[in-house]
Amino acid sequence: MSKLSKIFKAISLIIKQPALLNKVLDDEGVNKNEVVKKYNLEKGLKTVDITELLPNFDIMVEPYAALDGGSTPIDLALLKGLAALKPNCDYFEIGTWRGESVANVATVAKNCVTLNLPDSTMLEMGMDNKYVDLHRHFSTGLKNVTHLQGNSLTYDYKRLNQKFDLIFIDGDHHYESVMSDTKNAFTLLKDENSIIVWHDYGNNPGDIRWDVFRGILDGAPSDQIKNLYRVSNTLCAIYSKNVKTSEYLINHAVPEKHFTINVKAV
What we know:
Elements: H1 3-16, H2 19-26, H3 28-39, E1 47-48, H4 50-53, H5 73-84, E2 90-94, H6 100-106, E3 111-116, H7 119-124, H8 129-133, E4 145-149, E5 166-169, H9 175-187, E6 195-198, H10 210-219, E7 228-231, E8 237-239
Helix pairs in contact: 3-10, 5-6, 9-10
């Protein structure tokens, strides 16, 4: 089949099944090409070592479900540690799931607010009842946690009437959602020392999710891109103006540190 024939066949399939266009647009190669073309960041973000952000790294992670779709223990330790550095920390997150992240942060923060799709919306989308019921499992009933329900793409953030020290973005990971959540997050920062953390910048601590990365770059103010980094040993990217040293990851490098984890089921 000639290239021209393939093109016509592809167009025909997209006309018959418009959803296929989304798959094309979400393709990692497409997103990577856009990032490289627009930002010349083929290597992704430089990496800041987690021990630079949290010099006294000794953090108890509780709760941790060790189940699908959650953060890693080091991801949760990062959030909790960053919140602990902020006196009377005001914390906001988009995407709550089982509530592990906010439950960890709530032990050290003054006030926590989460935003997630309404339960009714998730049910209308055909999501399983048990899946929907698991949302906020670990964080329901915590006195310093407020759970809001709404679509982050259309939510009126002025209703919050609040700014935040630490913002965690872990909602829908498609490009458009990440871009929108990123734009809104920058309007909610309290001061020059406020921080944004994005989950799933990588599928593992060494690779890049190019749809998420592109959404971060296109959502961030152009003059703040220089303050974006990935965080070592995590799935996260971070916005911070207080990073002093960073470097590109080297694949298969000898580990410079390791972590001690005490595992206890309760």
